[in-house]
Structures are given as structure tokens and as C-alpha cells.
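Support reply, case 0932

Customer input (verbatim):
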Amino acid sequence: MKHINLYTCYVKHMGSEKMKESLIFGMALKIYDRFMLYYENSMFFMILHRLGQKLERYAASSSILSYFDKEWDVVNGWKNSITFKIVISPIRLLRYASQRFSESMEVIASDSRILKSVRVLLENLFNMGTKGYVLFFAAGIALSALLYYLQLMNLLLIAGGIASIILVLWRYEIGVFAVVGLIPLAPTMALLGLILLTAASFGIRLLLDKSMKLRITILDYFVVLFGIVLFYSFITSYTPGSSMLELLIHMAFIIFYFVLVNTIKTREQLYVLAALLVLSTTVTSLYGLYQLKTVTATSEAWVDTTLFEDIKTRVGSTFENPNVLGEYLVLIIPVAIAMLWGQKGWISRLITMGLTAIMLGCLVYTYSRGAYVGLMLALAMFAVLRDKRFVILCVIGLLMLPFVLPASVINRFASIGNLNDTSSFYRISVWLGSLGMAKDYWLSGIGLGLEPFKLVYPKYSLNAAYAHHSHNIYIQLIIETGITGLLMFFAIIVVYYKTMLTGFYKTKDRFTSTFMIAIASGMAGYLAQGMVENIWYNNKVLLTFWVMLAFGMIAKALIAEEKEVPGI
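Our regenerated output:
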């Protein structure tokens, strides 16, 4: 294997003058090249190389990996199946309604008195008589009265809300970008309202615009089936009232998944959307780091103060829970790293690296052990899929962590599996009790949300007499939706990864390819964290899960020349 000297390539590319200005960077590259030269001629590398060749031959003959490597045969499989016809019938009905009523909707819009009045008002704004200006003066007095009786901030919020409604109804794309950018910053109910408004605007556009066509992907069918399972879980819930709200939230997020998939049409739009998410997450991370100075003590429910006396604060930022914040950051940090492949200049790359460092620093001080393991898995998967040379850098970075991380973080990570920690002991007790529930309710579940769980769990609790959820997403899905819900969830994940693995290496666009690897890697770390956390406990993290699924389907659609499901 011929070794490529990065130091020489850098000198030829940058020139001698720039090299003098970047002496430190150049020396770092030279050291790296020397290290790689020794490594590639070592016995350790030869063993790994031969092992890799054997694994490659094994993978080539593996039926499981061959399944992930092949494209879906949608036309001959799904299109002729009964399941396909049942699932696709609502979409066909929607398309029929669009064709049937679009003309009448256009007539209503053109004959609308309100629209005519607005048009006449704008056309004659500066040609009004005395009465017209009197009316405007009266409107000004009324606005002044509102300003007097209402607080300025409330009035601004009302005005902002009205302006947002108008903008989103005018262009639903504004709502899509706003939802994704505001996920870590806005309250859940505000996001829910914005999603419903955006979905309504999208539906109106779909009815009125005959040229607008839906983008359908293979994952959509499994998402629809999962939604049906959720609806059934609501009907059979032990507490239908609380489950109704949970169903509304789930359905709104699923609808937003479909809207998002059908909104982003170019790589530039995808890049801007990812950049918005990274920027808003950086703001959230900065606030989390700010809490290190302002929050003097953390709840004992989140840390064993007798075992970790040096941990005074676990940051939760806008998520108000350090474990939930860790789950969210595990999904977003790989996306931030992928943004480096979309940058053209060193300044923009340094800025992106700075934003990523802020998020990493915030994750460190969540002290979430599940997030630590999830991020390590995500970065390892990213390194293997993007460039195997990064594996060496990851190993070096891992060996350097004990020298750069605070002792409190090292102690926290080393405590994984320590049953003397009250948090670990509590989780094991909850898992055992939850498994008892899952054994009795595996067929249909007990219903969506936390209320059914809190109602039934005390009958199965052991040492942990009180718990909001099972602290395991897979057990939680069985308890809430039964075995069908868990199987549909696994189907969504399998189809998602099949789509990612059959797509990222088929494009020459470095950003799209790296972006797909990043979201797949982040999802792997997130799902691994689901072994010790209910990763759907927080609605904003749940929304991020659906956004990441949509990102993957968008990227694949941008690569493919034809739709996933032609001729609907």
C-alpha cells in the first residue's frame, strides 16, 4: 500500500508563503504522515488488513448484508400487493379530492369579497377621500388604546403570532424551516401549533396547485402503518383522555415528516435546513454551558451525591433534563460534523468546528453516561463509513481523553455498571417491573403516554415504587402499543438504514453522502441510548427523530433520478 504524504500535498497546494504562515498546522500534518507511515508498515496494521480482507469476503457472501445492499423492488413487490393498495388508498383519495375540488376552490378564492376588498384598498390607498382617512385615524386610535391597556410584550407577541400565521399560510415552506430551526428553543405546544398551521397551509397548496405532486418513499408506508398502530393503541388505552393528547402529538409529528419530505427539493435547501438546526442547537448548548455558572446544585434524582461529590451541576439547557439534552445532542453533533464537507473555505470550516466544539462541551457536562456511549458509537460508525483513516484519529482521541477531560467526567463514565450508584440500581428495578408489565400486556399494550404507565406500573414495581416510564424505549413501546408497535418501529428502522446504505455511496456530492452517513450514525447512537432511556419521553426529541428520518428520505430522493414509488 502506497502511503500518501499529506504534508507534501499541503505544501504544493498552499504554497511556501502560506505554509510559513501555517507552520503549526504543517508540522501537525508532518507528524501525522510520519505516524501513518510507521502504522502502515507495522505488524498490527498487517493483522488488521488481513482480518479486514476476510471480513470483506464474508460480507460479500452474507445474505443479510446483501439484503441491505440491494435496492427495493417496489414495482414488482409492493405495487402488486394487497398491503400496498390498502396503504396507498388514502393518498389516492387525497389526489382525487385535489383534482375534484381544486377548480371550485380557485373560483371561491377569485370571487372572495374579502380578497377583492383588500385588493381595492391597496389600489386606492392614496386616492381616498376624507372619510377614508378618518377611518384610518380611528384605527390608529384603537391601536393606541390596545397598546395602553395591554403590555407591550403581549402586544408584540400577538402581532408576531398574526404575522407568523399570515406568512405560513402564504408560503408553507416558511413554517417548515421555522419548525426545524426552533426545535430546541420553542415550547412543545408552540411547535405543535406551528406544525398544524404549516400542515394546513401545505394541504391548501396541494388542493389549489395542480402541478404539485407528492414525493412518496418506501418508508412512508411503514410510517402510515405505525400511525394506524398508534391510533389503535389510543382506542384501547386505559386512560383514553390522556392518550388522545399523545396521539395528537404523534400524528402531528408524523404529518410534519410527510410535509418535510415533500418540501425540500434541492441540496441547497437541505444544507440551509441542516445549518439552521446546527445554529439553534449551538444556542441551546451555549445556554447549557451558561448554567454551569448559574445553577449551584442539581436534583438528587439526576446524580448520586454520595458517589459523585465533585458533580455539582448537570446541565439541561432548554430541555430541562440532562439526559434528554444528551439524547438530542447525540442526534445533532454528527450533523454538525457533516457540515464541514459542505464548506469551501478554512474560515467557515473553523467556525463550524467551533460550533461543534460548543455542542460537545455541553454534552460533556450533561454527565449523561448513555449520551457518552451513544456519541462514541455514532462517531465510530461515522469514521468507518466516511473514511477508515478516521478510525485511527478516533483511537488517538479516545486515548487522549483521560488527559483532557475533567476528573468528574472520567469518574462518571467509569461508573457505568456500578450497582452502588442509586441511578443504576433504580433503573434495574424499573426494568424488571416494566418487563413484568410487558409480559402481561404484550399483545395490545395499555395505551399511549405516561398516564397509563403510571396507573398500571405500581402493581409491578419492585424497589423502585415510582416511575414515569420504563427507561427503555423498546420495553416502553411494547407496554404502550403491544408487540405490533415494536415490530413496526423495527421495520421503520430497518427500512431507514437500508435506504441510507443503498444511497450514500451512489452520489458524487460529498456533502450529501457525508450528511447521510452523519444522520445514520447519529440515529445509531440515539437508538443505543434507547436501551437505557425512554428516548421518546421528551416531545422535542421525538420530533427530532422524525426530522432525521425525513432528512434521510430527502437525501436519497435527491440522489435518485426517479421517485421511490412510480406511477401511484
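We compared this against your earlier run and they match. Two observations from our side: The mean pLDDT is 78. The CA atoms of residues 134 and 140 lie 10 Å apart. Please reopen the case if you see a mismatch on your end.
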